[in-house]
Amino acid sequence: MREKIVLAYSGGLDTSIIIPWLKENYDYDVIAFVADVGQGDDLDAVVEKAYKTGACKVVVEDLRQEFLTDYVFPAIQAGAVYEHKYLLGTNHCQVPGGMRAEGRRECGVAWLYRQGQ
């Protein structure tokens, strides 16, 4: 039986090409985890793309409330900026999506993978 890995999946180039790479190089079954943090993406299209690139399963979770209360509001309160002019935002969505591991045990997953930027 093949080992399973959960990939924090955005539907972008990096996470889309890593699915077939993980399958070809490590023989993993890849479960794509999609976090809805209110980014406005067409989630149906993201799910379809994950399956087309080789995911054996796709899990979508609504993390909008958690993202706002646990990441965005504290970042704004702290005055978190990048290069002294840009409010930090998109990099924060990697945290709830990338580190959400509750589904790991129930799916029998060996690894949790988050592609860094």
Care to describe what's here?
By secondary structure, the protein is an alpha/beta fold. It has a domain at 4-62 and 98-113: HUPs (Rossmann fold, 3-Layer(aba) Sandwich), CATH 3.40.50. 43% of the residues lie in helices and 22% in strands. The chain has five helices and six strands; from the N terminus they run E-H-E-H-E-H-E-E-H-H-E. The chain has helices at residues 13-26, 43-52, 64-78, 94-98, 102-107; strands spanning 4-8, 29-36, 57-62, 81-82, 86-87, 111-113. The strands form two sheets. Strands 3-2-1-6 form a four-stranded parallel beta sheet. It has a two-stranded antiparallel sheet with strand order 4-5. Strand 4 and strand 5 form a beta hairpin. The radius of gyration is 15 Å and the shape is elongated.
How would you sum up the major sheet?
4 strands, parallel
- CATH architectural label of the domain at 4-62 and 98-113: 3-Layer(aba) Sandwich
SS strand fraction: 15-25%
CATH class of the domain at 4-62 and 98-113: Alpha Beta
What structural class do the secondary elements suggest? alpha/beta
In CATH, the homologous superfamily of the domain at 4-62 and 98-113 goes by the name HUPs
The end-to-end distance, rounded to whole angstroms, is: 31 Å
Helix proportion: 40-55%
CATH topology of the domain at 4-62 and 98-113: Rossmann fold
Given as residue ranges, the uncertain stretches (5+ residues, pLDDT < 50) are none
Major beta sheet, strand line-up: 3-2-1-6
Give the overall average pLDDT: 80
Tell me the number of strands: 6
Work out the radius of gyration: 15 Å
Number of helices: 5
Q: Which H/E pattern describes the elements? A: EHEHEHEEHHE
- Tell me, what's the shape? elongated
